[in-house]
Each structure stands twice: as structure tokens, then as C-alpha cells.
Amino acid sequence: MIAIREERPHDLEAVRRINEIAFEQGPEVAIVDELRKSCREYCSFVAVDQDIVVGHIVFTPVTLDGSRVTGMGLAPMAVLPSYQNQGIGFLLVRQGLQHLQQSGCPFVIVLGHPEYYPRFGFEPASHYKLKSQWDGVPDEAFMVVVFDRDVLPGEGGIARYRAEFDEAM
Fold first, then answer.
1. Are 110 and 117 in contact (CB under 8 A)?
2. Which end of the chain has the least Cβ crowding within 10 Å, N or C?
3. What is the Cα–Cα distance from 56 to 43, expressed in whole angstroms?
4. How far is 116 from 120, CA to CA, in rounded Å?
5. Model's pTM, two decimal places?
6. pLDDT category, 146, cuts 50, 70, 90?
7. Minimal CA–CA distance to 152: which of 134, 112, 125, 132?
8. CA torsion, points 48, 162, 112, 78, in degrees to nearest 10?
9. Which value, to the nearest 10 degrees, does the dihedral of the CA atoms of residues 7, 11, 14, 17 take?
10. Rounded to an integer, what distance in angstroms lies between the CA atom of residue 7 and that of residue 160?
11. pLDDT at 137 over 70
12. Is the pLDDT of residue 169 over 70?
């Protein structure tokens, strides 16, 4: 039985291993390490199977240029290959979004697979005139789920992840 819970200090090595395996030593491993050091608003959940951490998801603050509105960005999410295609990613995303909505987060953005994230309510961020800070991001891959439409600026804006993500892009 898979359980989803907030990441704990003793999970750090297991989470690092999951990201190393899932992202094949890509920049995501370093990003998660740096976020832990520098980001106080870091929100992280793990998927656990019989005390073994098998999945991980992170949410960090995202700002909109020219606005005081802060939401969250979903990235990265990883599941051990032997546990993939069992709904663990779904559980991680769902738990994270529920937590953020209950805590008053107005929106969550993701740069991800357009065939996967709409099931959680994500839609193209361009519907709200939101753009990615990075050039060349396909419109269908830059998505947002909005919990409080009233706080989004009508003129939209550029959504900015934390600086730690710039190296990956």
C-alpha cells in the first residue's frame, strides 16, 4: 500500500537516489539539493511503500512579474522506474495540489507533459495570459491550475521559477 506524506529529514538520501535514477544524473538532482538549502517555502511530499521511499514531488514559489501574487511551481517529480505506471505520480500530484489549495495557494504552474497534467485541472497558462520566463517553451507544455482566479492579474504576466531552475533550462 502506497502512502503519501510530507518529506522528512531522514528521507533526503532516498529522495536524492530517486532523482538520480529517474533523471539519469540530470540537473534535477542539484536543483533539489539547492532548493533545500535556499528555499524556506519548499513543499515536498514522498510516496512510501512499506517504509521505502519510492517517489518524490517538490513545489516551490513562483512569482508573476509586475505583481505581488505568488503561487507555486511543480518540479521536479520522480518515481523509481520499478514503481512507475502504478498511479504513484498521480497520488503525489493530487496530494500536493490538495495541500496547496487548502493552504491558500492561488495557483500552481508546471512545465510538463500536456497529456498528463490536465487530469488535475491544469490548462495552458496562456488562457490566463501567463508566459514562461524561458524562451521556446511550447504553449501546450506550460500549464497552470488556478485555485483563486481573483488574484491573477488580468493582464497576465511572466511566471518566474526560483533561480535554481535556470541551470536546468
1. yes
2. N
3. 11
4. 8
5. 0.94
6. very high
7. 125
8. -20
9. 60
10. 24
11. yes
12. no
Answer yes or no: are the C-beta atoms of 31 and 164 closer than 8 Å: yes
Question: What domain range includes position 134?
Answer: 2-165
* Amino acid identity at 109: I
> pLDDT tens digits for 49-75?
999 999 999 999 999 998 889 999 999
CATH number at residue 34: 3.40.630.30
Per-residue pLDDT for 40 more than 80?
A: no
What domain count does the chain have? 1
Residues 3, 9: Cα–Cα separation, whole Å: 17
- The one-letter amino acid at 149: R
Q: Grade residue 100 by pLDDT with cuts at 50, 70 and 90.
A: very high
